[in-house]
């Protein structure tokens, strides 16, 4: 394809994909199938690789991430991001209304009410319609530039139609993580033995400050916009600003309402007090703003907050109940989680009987004792938690709770690893919940995908001593399964067929299914792609492991520990004999060109247009060869940012040509 043709096609694809993204993420509508969408995006990214200079600022490929930001520049806000005064009282809200009325004299006024979302405030600047900068609130005067990460938010337009005829406009919103995404993220962390994240708000905040924007993209953050600022904007009210944001295809929560007087405001507050629990994200109150911008100017601001707005905060629903006992659960990785068993209490519309206490540190921090009257609330409106103890009700003979020393399931002495809050049962192969948990992990959809097998069946097989490791699944016979409670001929054959079909599952999924600590689905894919087989991975050294992009020391140590265990070696060999896939199926390489024939390359550092795996594929697709070590036979070292100094020094010493990413692109584009 010639450059002029590519330019037109890139522009066409960019516009189409951005439009389909808008329909999907903000209108819940799909005009094309997922496959068709993926093909369009793949075509665009291929063209952008071939003609990088033609990539547009609003290209949807920028949402995929991949940029590494080592430090976040501190930026001064053009318009200070003031915090709001808070109140928990309707009486104080009416007092605020009286102050507004006094400040405006005889003028009539109206309010706009919006839900106060529990997220991270963000200021985004558009220059000539293009997203140019995104900055966190910080201290209200200065914040951090997280533009690369903000671009990954699918509902945030990379380009807006400049209908107001202004060079620069600033919009503000709240970045959040939905409950669904947060819960999924915690389930994934459970899978790989990571500590659970505390709440969606803190997770969203931490995600925005991650160095690798591709990881940010995978977290699926969202953003509700609520303000427009700029010089000489033809917008007279807050309501008009919200409608303008909607016209620009920003994601605006449809829950806002214009209220004629304070009684309507209070009706709105009362309506959402319980209704808000049905929303897909966290809320903690209502923001009440005078609608007219002219009247906002009259009312002005204090040094800390505007006089024309106030936040009404809902009180966290908190009830007192009795702590009857503490039980202890054992997870797949052996982690022990204490659970408070409570006298049932009604909280936020549901009956609460149990609350997680996380670990021994939390029990000690709360100074809990059996029989205590404790205060319970829904942390983040999702998970019940104990927030304190009513000391006035404490019994005189109560004793501090001592955390258990042995596993409640198998009696093994617990251990506590240095630097970790959790206690663990080290009896991996003899502790029933760990054995069953590993099999449950092994058969899940993202792993071996044996959907005809569930927790109940795993428990039945375990009780009959038919299932101790995942390898035992492939030894089951018709009679073994048919004899189980509830199984008949059809269900037996379905389970056997599901187990047989799992033998075709790809190596990366099998690797994830093994349950190596800290090796989640994405890490398993990267390791499988890099090492190509289980034997290569098992033989890899620490240095070879950390040389894989995004594989850190903790993962490398965990992989080495796993393959160093004789029992795990036996497991892998048994699964091999059963016919599972332990090598990557190499795709047939269709050469783009022969420009790099007989040329060998070493790749080092971080790149802008490619990940390291992508640049290696590009070399192979153009006839070249990728090697891992510098030698006199290497033709080129492709040097990215933060490359290893030893490779650079050796390449210089041996006279290897050192080229930049831009020089490599020129080489394959034959320019």
From TrEMBL:
Keyword Signal assigned: no
SMART domains named among the record's database cross-references: BRCT, HhH1, LIGANc
UniProt superkingdom: Bacteria
BRCT domain location: 591-671
SUPFAM superfamilies reported in the protein's UniProt record: BRCT domain (SSF52113), DNA ligase/mRNA capping enzyme, catalytic domain (SSF56091), Nucleic acid-binding proteins (SSF50249), RuvA domain 2-like (SSF47781)
Function: DNA ligase that catalyzes the formation of phosphodiester linkages between 5'-phosphoryl and 3'-hydroxyl groups in double-stranded DNA using NAD as a coenzyme and as the energy source for the reaction. It is essential for DNA replication and repair of damaged DNA.
Protein name: DNA ligase
Organism lineage: Bacteria, Pseudomonadati, Bacteroidota, Cytophagia, Cytophagales
Gene name tied to this protein: ligA
